[in-house]
Amino acid sequence: MSEPEEELQEEQRESTKKKKKKKKKKMRKEKRSGRKKEEEEEEEEKREEEEQVEEEEEQSECVVLRGIFKLGKKSHDVLLTRTRLTWTPIMPETPTGEASTLEPGVLLLQDVLAVKVKRRRAAGQESGGAVLGVALFCCRRRGRRLEEDTLHLHNASAEHTHTWYNTLKELLTGFRSRPKYLKVFINPSSHKKEAVHIYREHVAPLFKMADIRTDITVTERKGHALSVMKECKLDEYDGVVCVGGDGSVAELCHALVLRAQLDADSPEKPVQPVLPLGIIPAGSTDVVSCSVHGVRDPVTAALHIVLGHQQQVDMCSFSSLGQLVRFGFSAMFGFGGRSLARAEKKRWMPSSRRREYALVKTLARLRPEDCQLSFLPVKKSNSVMFGHRDQDQDSDSGEPYEAESWTTNEGLYLSISIMSIPCLTTHAPQGLAPNTSVANGTASLIAVGNTSRSEFIKHLKRYSSSSGQFNFSFVEAHAVSAVKVRPRSLIGCSEEEEDEEEDESNNEGDSKITPIIQSEGAAFPWNIDGELVEITNEVLIRVHPRLITLYGEEVDEAEMPMSCSCI
Ligand SMILES: Nc1ncnc2c1ncn2[C@@H]1O[C@H](COP(=O)(O)OP(=O)(O)OP(=O)(O)O)[C@@H](O)[C@H]1O
C-alpha cells in the first residue's frame, strides 16, 4: 500500500471513530434528557400526591364540632375533627393569676369502638331518662395489650348531646375495615374447656357494644368447622372468628383457603380468602394468636377485631405424593413430631402435665431421623430475608420468587422445623422462628443435626432466654420458599421401646392421630400446627406469601416470658 493510500485509510478510520463517538454522545444525551423528563414527571406526580395528602390532612383536621362538656368535674372546650377529639380545660382567671393544673387531652377516633348517649335512669328503668351527655368507648394501649376504656363527656342539653352522638357515629362508620357481622366458631374442648366462658365473658360484650352481629357455631367434633365453612353463605359476613387453640385456628385457616379455592374453581392453586380471620386465644400455647397480637389475651384479640386491624400473613401448604395434606403455618418433624405423638397418647392427663411428660420422655429417648432434606433457599441479598417484602413484589402465583436452586442434604436430624410465622409463645418470646416475620414471603427452616442430648437441651433452652439458639455447629437456619423432607428409614428404635409405645397405644386408644397418607411402610409423626399427622412418604412444604388475612398487627416479641420448668 502506498503512503497516500495509508493516510487515506487512517483518516477514514479516524472519521468513523469520531462518528461512533458522536453517536454515543448523542445517545447518552438523549438518554439523559429522557431520564430527566421521566424524573421531572415523577417529581411532578410526587408533588401532586403530597398536595393531595396535605389537602386531605387539612380537611381531616378541620373542626367538625366544637362545644363545652364537663370531663370529671371541670368544664372543657372540646373540639372534634374527622380524626380526633381534643379537650382543653376552661379555667376562669384567678386574681392571683395561677395557671391551670389540668392537662389538655386527645383521643384518636381510630381507637374509639363505640359511642352511646348517657342517661339518668332509675333502677329497673329500661328506656327514657334525662340526657347526661355522651360516652366514648375506646381502647388504650398498655405495651402489646389493648384495654377497654371510657371517656365521659357530660352536657345535660339533649340537642347538643344528640348532635355530637350522631356526628361521632357517622365518623365511626367511615372505618370500612371494621366488621358488622361475624361468623364465630367456638371449640368447647380446647385446653381447659374454657372457650365458651372466655367468649361470653370477654368477647361478646365488646362485640355487642360495637353493634357487631354474630352467628355462632359451637363445634361438636374435629372437622365440624371445616364442614360448616364448606357449606355456609360467606358473602353475608365481614369476617370469621375462631375461639380456641392452635388446632382450631389451623382448621379454620385451612377451611378458608379451601373454600376460596372452591369458589374460584381453582383446585390446584391456593386462593386468598376474601374474609379475614380473628383469633381469640383459648388454647394452651396459642402461637398464631401470640404472633399477631404479642400477648395471649382475649380482650386484646377482640379489640383488634372490633377496630378492624388487619394484616396479611404467609401460609404454607403441606402435601405428600401430590396430595394436599393441609394448609398451615408450621410443621415439625423429628423431636417436635415424636413429642406430640407421645403427648396425644396421654390425653387423659391435664394438658401442661401431658406436654411436660412427653417432652421429658422424648428427650430421654432422643433419637435422630435418617432423612433427605431438600430446600429452596431465598437469596441472601434479597431484602425479604429477615425483613418485610414490598407490596409490589407479590407473586400472584404464590410461587417462590428469587429462589436459588434446590439444595439437598442427607443425614441424621434430631429435629426439622419449617415455620412461615415467628411462632411467638410465652416460652419463646422472640419466637420459635425469630428469623422470619408474618409477611416476608419466606419460611424459616431450622434443621438440628445429630448431637448429644446435653447439647440439644442447651439449644432448646436458648429459645426461652434470648438469642443464640442457632450458634451451634449442628444447627442450620435458612430462609426458604420450599422444603422437601424424605424420611429414609426408622433407625435407632430399640425393640423394647417399640413394645412400650405399642402398649401405650393399646391401653389408651383415645389418641387424636390423623393418618392422612396411608401406606404399607412405617408412618412418621409430624406436628403440623400442634396437630398430630402421620405421613409415610416425602412431605413437600411450599410457602404462599400473604395467603390469609388475620385481625391483629405485626409484633416482634411476645409479652410475659415464662420459663419452662421441665428442661
Ligand atoms: N367439640 C369438640 N370435641 C373434640 N374436638 C374438637 C371439638 N371441636 C373441635 N375439635 C378439634 O379439637 C382440635 C384441637 O383443638 P384446639 O387446638 O382448639 O385445642 P387444644 O389442642 O386443647 O389447644 P392447643 O392446640 O393450644 O393445645 C382441633 O383439631 C379441632 O378441630
TrEMBL record:
This is Ceramide kinase-like protein. GO terms for molecular function: lipid kinase activity. It comes from Parambassis ranga (Indian glassy fish). GO terms for cellular component: membrane. Residues 177-322 form the DAGKc domain. Residues 1-56, 492-512 are annotated as: Disordered. Residues 16-35 have a biased composition (Basic residues). It comes from the Eukaryota. Residues 39-56, 494-507 have a biased composition (Acidic residues). InterPro entries: ATP-NAD_kinase_N, CERK_C, Diacylglycerol_kinase_cat_dom, Lipid_Phosphate_FormReg, NAD/diacylglycerol_kinase_sf. Pfam families: CERK_C (PF19280), DAGK_cat (PF00781). SMART domains: DAGKc.
